[in-house]
Amino acid sequence: xxxxSIWRLIMSTKYLSGMILSGILMLASSAIAAPNYNYYEAxxxxxxxxxxxxxxxxxxxxxxxFKLDSSIIAGESVLLTxxxxxxxxDEDGTDIDVDTLIxxxxxxxxxxxNSGVDIGLVYRTDNLEISGFASGDISxxxxxAGIRSNVSDSLxxxxxxxxxxxx
Length: 167
Prior knowledge:
By secondary structure, this protein is of the alpha+beta class. The chain has one helix and seven strands, in the order H-E-E-E-E-E-E-E.
């Protein structure tokens, strides 16, 4: 037995196993369904609020609360989204609450049988209330873009970017 023979056997085995693995993945990917954009979700949420004012200084306030998210497809490719979050925190005995509402509409562009891109317009409004001191609303419109892909029947990967202009 020489080294060249062993090397050829290893390489042909790797090549054959690579072909078999590729074939299995191609068959599996054709059986995987498209991402499901219809969902409702409730979750515990955390955040950090950064406040800064000339008279007061600045503070980073840890907040927690809940978040509700929903998404639904209207027709074949129109995506409607709605998100609401209510977070509260405490800074030196002062309650600080933030309520956020995001409404969006967009389009879904399929990339393959199991992946798609969504592009849309969003409107966001935040209501900030500092007990005994001040309150205010901040709102603005923006753009969002995301990609979703089903890796298997039980695993979906998603990423989304948003840009919001504020008043």
